[in-house]
Design goal:
Oligomer: heterodimer
Mean pLDDT of chain A: 93
Structural class of chain A: mainly alpha
CATH superfamily of the largest domain in chain B: Medium-chain alcohol dehydrogenases, catalytic domain
Number of strands of chain A: 0
Shape of chain A: extended
Radius of gyration of chain A: 28 Å
Number of helices of chain B: 11
Shape of chain B: globular
Number of strands of chain B: 17
Low-confidence stretches of chain A: none
Order of helices and strands of chain A: HHHHHH
Largest sheet of chain B: 7 strands, mixed
Chain lengths: 189, 382
């Protein structure tokens, strides 16, 4: 009880716990815990045979945080920025530090633009985006959707109906914009 | 090669992609034999992590066989069976030299606040991940380790993140003999954190979630006392009642950005992306722990701000400890625990999904269909 000095008595003693739970207390001594202490200076332990790594070739101007002094020697090369979303990303990196909400909000905005751009681009290919198969929603037919959800007191069921709206909203918006553009063009011609 | 490709929030598909190539002399190319979907992959899938680009391949939990190595690689050769930590790290920067491998400063140009992570957006470096047939592994002399001969791929892949992170979470709790530990979240990391808390000498381990099937797993796998927060008007008050109104000594947040339990917090974070994460579990942890206690945070949060009850943490004199797990640092001790039978990582695997059906795998995991706890991905060439 917090109102008196003594600690509450444990329900089970250490000996009882050791007998019941495999491995109980194996790491009781903090010296057996691999992340204690937090920092251990031992640069030879890592396998690195360099003090500063050789630089990976930069094949296009790689966007980077302005909090870095220079481009890191190694970096990922997936998905170079492209289109309007790429321009937004480059601006977010060039203008704002990681400490600014604008940096992250621009990047999130670019992600949404990227999704729309990529969906539109896919319509010009032999494999257009398919929101049905890509959401994996077909697994609902084979993986007990009713039994998994109902009668189970799942609190996430309250907001799950928002998910299809979030998926469908850009498609509906793109359709409406497309319709408006076509209507406008027809009126002009 | 075949690879999972992100197409936008809640959408992905498998498509043909170029096989990765050596881009740096210390790179290796690994043929993936087993991968997993992590709970934190769902944050990407749901569009929560800034700079997640269409076309990216996710997957930071994978093991495989070395297919090719760069000219400066000394410790690995083609044909080696390797496990790859989710952290990409150089081994020589200020942070790596001090064992903080998850905070490497030489691998992520996009951000200084986070290191490099496979398949985890450009915010974490822009590297493609392992939910594919092949993956580029930078710093092959530093990151990967040979999988012990006695360990199978299903166990090994769980050591690349989930088990290591849960074990690390228990260490962050600074548990002393007889401590009461409350773990928020009965997903893979929460289950492993609960199990690991006993190794550190906990006297009582409590797990909280809203999914009964996961709580049953916590009781069976992690020998934990369990509470479904839906059953209580206020789970914090319940924690006070069951700890004689003292509060737990240690609380571990193993939920992170998409926590449930408060609709406003969840919707503003997970649906509207106005917070870096929904800090419900973290706030409950702050309020459930005793004054002077310790909070360990291993749940993943985005880089934006979150509405955390910091005043309570200050007023209670709490110690808040957190980080991405430096995975490789955990392995030697975890190998001992697995070999001694104290931990059996693959006991929590519920689904094995072929790479070609990964979209269904994400939906099943995200929607918690079929009592899903941990889905593994089986690439075509495995």
């Amino acid at each position: 009880m917090p109102y008196t000095p003594d600690r509450p008595k444990p329900a089970e003693s250490s000996d009882e716990l050791r007998a019941r739970i495999p491995g109980w207390g194996a790491d009781l001594d903090p010296r057996d815990r691999p992340s204690v202490p937090k920092e251990v200076y031992d640069p030879k332990a890592t396998g690195a045979h360099w003090e500063f790594p050789e630089r990976q070739p930069e094949k296009w101007p790689r966007e980077r945080s302005i909090e870095h002094r220079f481009l890191t020697p190694v970096f990922g090369t997936a998905c170079p920025p492209k289109g309007l979303s790429g321009a937004i990303r480059r601006f977010a990196y060039a203008r704002y530090s990681e400490g600014r909400a604008a940096h992250w909000l621009l990047l999130l905005g670019a992600d949404r633009v990227d999704a729309v751009e990529s969906a539109a681009r896919s319509m010009l290919t032999l494999r257009p985006d398919n929101p049905i198969t890509q959401t994996g929603v077909l697994s609902e037919f084979t993986h007990h959707p009713i039994r998994s959800r109902f009668g189970r007191r799942r609190t996430d069921l309250v907001h799950q109906p928002l998910d299809p709206i979030l998926v469908a909203a850009p498609w509906v918006a793109a359709g409406l914009i497309g319709y408006a553009v076509v209507k406008r063009l027809r009126r002009v011609t | 090669m075949r690879a999972m490709v992100y197409r936008g929030p809640y959408r992905l598909r498998v498509e043909e992609k170029d096989r990765p190539s050596i881009e740096h002399p210390n790179d290796a190319i690994v043929r993936v034999t087993r991968a997993a979907i992590c709970g934190s992959d769902l944050h990407l899938y749901h569009g929560m992590m800034p700079d997640t680009r269409v076309g990216m391949t996710f997957g930071h939990e994978f093991v495989g066989v070395v297919d090719e190595v760069g000219s400066s690689v000394r410790n690995l050769a083609a044909g080696d069976r390797v496990m790859v930590p989710f952290n990409i790290f150089c081994g020589s920067c200020y942070f790596c030299a001090r064992g903080l491998y998850s905070n490497c400063h030489n691998v992520n140009p996009n951000a200084t606040a986070v290191g490099g992570i496979y398949g985890y957006s450009h915010t974490c470096g822009g590297y493609d991940g392992g939910q594919s047939e092949y993956v580029r592994v930078p710093f092959a002399d530093v990151g990967p380790s040979l999988i012990p001969e006695w360990m199978d791929d299903d166990d090994a892949v769980l050591l690349t993140d989930a088990l290591a992170t849960g074990y690390f979470g228990a260490q962050l709790g600074d548990i002393s003999e007889g401590d009461t530990v409350v773990v928020f979240g009965a997903g893979p990391v929460g289950l492993y954190a609960a199990k690991s808390s006993w190794l550190m000498g906990a006297g009582r381990v409590i797990v909280i979630d809203h999914l009964d099937y996961r709580l049953r797993k916590a009781a069976e796998f992690a020998h934990a006392e369990t509470y479904n927060f839906v059953e209580y008007d206020d789970i914090v008050v319940q924690m006070k009642k069951v700890t004689d109104h003292l509060g737990a000594d240690v609380a571990i947040d193993a939920v992170g950005a998409e926590a449930d339990g408060n609709l406003v917090q969840h919707v503003t974070a997970a649906k509207l992306k106005l917070q870096g994460g929904s800090p419900i579990a973290l706030n409950w942890a702050i309020d459930s722990v005793r004054k002077g206690g310790t909070i360990s945070v291993v749940g993943a949060y985005g880089p934006m701000f979150s509405a955390v009850k910091f005043g309570d943490a200050v007023n209670k004199g709490l110690t808040l400890r957190m980080n991405q797990c430096p995975v490789k640092r955990q392995w030697p001790r975890l190998f001992e625990h697995v070999r001694n039978g104290y931990l059996k990582p693959s006991d929590i695997v519920t689904h094995r999904i072929p790479l070609e059906h990964i979209a269904e795998g994400y939906h099943i995991f995200s929607s918690k269909l079929d009592n899903c706890i941990k889905p593994l991905i089986i690439p075509n060439a495995a």
